[in-house]
Amino acid sequence: MAITIKTAEEIEKMRVAGRLAAEVLEMITPYVQVGVTTNELDNLCHEHIVNVQKAIPSPLNYKGFPKSICTSINHQVCHGVPGHRALKNGDILNIDITVTKNGYHGDTSRMFMIGKPSVRAKRLIEIAYECLWIGIRQVKPGAYLSQIGKEIYKHASAQKCSVVREYCGHGIGKNFHEAPQVLHYYSPDIKDTQLSPGMIFTIEPMINAGKRHIKVLPDKWTVVTKDHKPSAQWEHTLLVTQDGVEILTLGENEKPPQG
Questions:
Q1: Which domains does the chain carry?
Q2: Among candidate residues 112, 111, 135, the one with its CA nearest the CA of residue 203
Q3: Please, which of 89, 112, 135, 258 could form a disulfide with 148 given CB 3.0 to 4.6 Å?
Q4: CA 203 to chain centre
């Protein structure tokens, strides 16, 4: 699949979809507390997307996925299926939201801490957030896609963390997943791509406290770390502009990490 350069009209639709996805994360934040089930969070997000935003939750029925959001707890890396599991004090949780509006997708995720997680889990969340922003800072016309993964990997490794390789960022637009693939590590074997204005893609590094190795649970969706050590992920949808980058899913009060 070729990389599509979005038109001005498409970019405007992507801005709307991105803003809505970010809004869902803002909406759900007060509900992420001890005792709530991930099913309840899924229902709240579904109702908001469908009834308030008049939009579509992109994950629902995507390749058979049964829910409207992904909820990944502790050592779950990604694609966690909401269920009857109630959140406990000390849990960490990734909520991944993708909204379709007027035929275009906006994709974002963030980490939540329930009660008081361990020092290690809290630091892992911070490192994953730093990795996301390090990747974002590489995005500008003329830069190369490989630089994103190279810098993310360098930072994660320096912090004694590992980067999941089996899943990556992706182009997005009319399709949930488009070209290019955005690796969060560097591989000289992958053909590199130079960034041009109008490209839209996600950066979504999955950072593990232990080793990078993963497995998929019998539900055929939920990905977990093999060593059961925690994993953290943040995600934004990004537009390459004429002189840099625009974050289409930026939260209302979100700020880059210091340093």
A1: 8-247 (3.90.230.10)
A2: 135
A3: 135
A4: 7
Report the C-alpha gap between 243 and 122 in whole angstroms. Answer: 34
Other CB atoms within a 10 A radius of the CB of residue 126 amount to 13
| DSSP secondary structure code for residue 30 in this structure | G
**Alpha carbon distance 5, 211 (integer Å):** 36
Determine the Cα–Cα distance for residues 159 and 244; give it in Å rounded to an integer: 27
pLDDT tens sequence across 75-99? 999 999 999 999 999 999 999 999 9
- The two structure tokens encoding residue 127: 């490192």
User: CB under 8 Å to 253, separation ≥6 — which residues?
Assistant: none
Closest CA to 172 of 138, 201, 210: 201
What does DSSP assign to residue 49? Answer: I
The 10 Å Cβ neighbour count of residue 20 is 22
Per DSSP, helices labelled H in the chain are 8-28, 38-47, 119-136, 145-158
Terminal-to-terminal C-alpha distance of the chain: 37
Q: Which residue has 């893609």 as its token pair?
A: 201
CB 82 within 8 A of CB 67: yes
Helix axes 38-47, 8-28, angle to 10 degrees: 140
